[in-house]
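Bug #77: duplicate submission created two jobs. Keeping one. Sequence:
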Amino acid sequence: MYVLITIVGLLVTLFFLAGFWRGLQNAIAEYRSGAPEPTDVPDYGYGSLAAVSVIASAVIIAGVGFSPAMIYAGPLLALVTAAGCGLAFFVEQTRA
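Kept job's structure:
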C-alpha cells in the first residue's frame, strides 16, 4: 500500500504542478493585458461537493477506530483533494 500511495502521490504532484503552472501563466497574461479586474462572482455551486468532502473525512476518521486498514484512506483522500485543486487550474475560464 505504501508503494501505491507513493506512486499516486507523485502523479498527483505532477498534475497539481502542471495545473499551477497553467494558472500562473494565465495570471501573468491577465496582468499584462491591463484589463480591469472583473467584479462578478461565478456561480459554480461547489457547496454540495464541500459537504461530501467533510462527510468523507468524518467517515474515514471514524473508520480508523473500526479497522486499522482505514488509516490508508486518509492519505488517499488528501491526494484526491490535491488533485481537485490542480484540476481547478485547468477548468478555470480564461478571459479572451
